[in-house]
Design a protein that fits this description.
Blueprint (H helix, E strand, L loop, with lengths): L2 E5 L3 H13 L3 E5 L2 H10 L4 E4 L8 H6 L6 E5 L4 H9 L4 E4 L4 H19 L3 E4 L2 E4 L4 E4 L2 E2 L4 H12 L5 E2 H8 L8 H19 L4 E4 L3 E4 L8
Parallel strand pairs: 1-2, 1-3, 3-4, 4-5
Antiparallel strand pairs: 6-7, 7-8, 8-9, 10-12, 11-12
Helix pairs in contact: 6-8
Length: 226
C-alpha cells in the first residue's frame, strides 16, 4: 500500500484529503507545519507528498529543498506562473492550484505512481562499482558477481535507490518488508553486517556506513569509512 503525506495547515482540507485517499486505498501521514513536516520525514518515508506552500514555521519552499527522492505534488493557492515554474525547477513533480477538483488530484497521483512503477522496473540499478539486476536478482561489484540473500538484495536495492542519503532503520524495515517479511529490527544488523562483508570482500572496501542510532547509507571511497 502506497503512503501519501499530507502537509497542510488547513485542517478542513487535510481531513478531506485524508478521507478521500484512505477511501482510494492509500495510507496517509499528516503534518501541519513546515517544522513538523521535517520531523515526520526524519522518521518516515512516504511514497508521495502533497505539499502546501503557506505553512507556519518553515515554508513549503523550504521544506521542498529538504525532500530528496520522493515525488512532491504542490497544492497551493499561489497562482502565479513564475511560482509554478520555480517550484517545478526546484524539485516538485507537479503543481495543483487551490481550489482543486479532487478527481484531478487523484488522477495526478495515479500518474506519479505509474511513473514510479516504470522507474522501479528498470532492469539494472548502478551506484559507483555496484550493479544489481532487479529482475534476475543478480549483483556485481566491479563486474564480479556477489551472491546475496533475498533480504540483503532488498536492503542494497533500497540504499542504491537513495544514494548517499541516510536511510533510517524504520524506513528500511518498512520498505523491505514488502519483499522480505522475515526481517525484523533485531535481525537487521545481522543482515547489514553480512551484506557489508560480501561487498567488502568483492570490492576491497566498505560501501555501507552505519550512522549510529539512525540508519545506514552508501559511501564513496573518498568518505571516511565506519
Amino acid at each position: 500500500m502506497e503512503t501519501i503525506a499530507i502537509i497542510d495547515d488547513d485542517i478542513y482540507i487535510g481531513d478531506m484529503l485524508e478521507k478521500v485517499l484512505k477511501k482510494e486505498g492509500y495510507g496517509t501521514l499528516r503534518a501541519y507545519s513546515g517544522t513538523e513536516a521535517c520531523m515526520l520525514l526524519e522518521r518516515s518515508r512516504p511514497d508521495l507528498i502533497l505539499l502546501d506552500l503557506m505553512l507556519p514555521g518553515l515554508s513549503g519552499e523550504e521544506v521542498l529543498e529538504r525532500i530528496h527522492g520522493i515525488p512532491v505534488i504542490v497544492v497551493s493557492a499561489k497562482v502565479e506562473v513564475s511560482d509554478k515554474v520555480n517550484l517545478l525547477l526546484h524539485g516538485a513533480c507537479d503543481y495543483l492550484t487551490k481550489p482543486f477538483d479532487i478527481q484531478e488530484l487523484l488522477a495526478r497521483i495515479t500518474v506519479r505512481f505509474r511513473e514510479r512503477k516504470v522507474m522501479d522496473e528498470k532492469k539494472v540499478l548502478r551506484w559507483k562499482e555496484l550493479e544489481m539486476d532487479v529482475q534476475t536478482h543478480e549483483s556485481w561489484v566491479s563486474g564480479q558477481p556477489v551472491k546475496m540473500t533475498r533480504t540483503e538484495f532488498a536492503i542494497l536495492k533500497l540504499l542504491i535507490q537513495n544514494p548517499e542519503q541516510v536511510v533510517t532503520r524504520s524506513v528500511i524495515l518498512e520498505r523491505i518488508s514488502r519483499d522480505t517479511p522475515d526481517c525484523t529490527d533485531n535481525s537487521l544488523n545481522v543482515h547489514i553486517s553480512n551484506l557489508r562483508k560480501k561487498l567488502r570482500e568483492a570490492g576491497g572496501k566498505d560501501y555501507i556506513e552505519a550512522i549510529w542510532g539512525i540508519g545506514f547509507r552508501l559511501v564513496d571511497r573518498k568518505e571516511k569509512q565506519s
